[in-house]
Design a protein that fits this description.
Radius of gyration: 15 Å
Helix content: 25-40%
Oligomer: single chain
Structural class: alpha+beta
Shape: globular
Length: 138
């Protein structure tokens, strides 16, 4: 039997409303030691923003830090459900070329699976697993 993504996902989500700003996201990332934030419209997931998005889509473009996240987040999300397996997550990451997949139920966030989570699951002694489990640089 295949292992469910719920066994490897992180349920410690950082979420902000779509009206939050780039500054809000950067501060949350710094304060919580994460590189991604789920963006919500009400209680529903409508996007994700990563530390790379902030650099490439806003700073490099000269955007003001008060720009709403709706202008830089990825809206076309690939997601997993609680019935998906680790193999499903690996396949979807390969197909979509993403490093993080929200786990949702009825479009409401339950967790997130990262490339590091999968590396740790498949080979806990790999370099990627070691780097992914190390404390965040602050």
């Amino acid at each position: 039997m295949q292992q469910s993504v719920t066994r490897v996902m992180s349920s410690q989500l950082v979420m902000l409303p779509i009206s939050a700003t780039i500054t809000d996201a950067a501060r949350e990332m710094r304060d919580r030691g994460v590189g991604d934030i789920l963006i919500l419209d009400g209680e529903m997931v409508c996007g994700i923003v990563t530390d790379r998005d902030i650099v490439v889509r806003s700073v490099a473009e000269g955007m003001d830090s008060s720009t709403p996240l709706s202008d830089i987040c990825s809206h076309d999300l690939a997601t997993l459900s609680t019935t998906d397996t680790v193999d499903d997550a690996i396949r979807l990451m390969r197909e979509k070329h993403v490093r993080r997949l929200p786990v949702v139920e009825n479009n409401r966030p339950l967790g997130i699976v990262s490339l590091g989570d999968l590396a740790f699951e498949r080979d806990p002694h790999s370099v990627l697993a070691d780097v992914s489990s190390a404390p965040a640089n602050t």
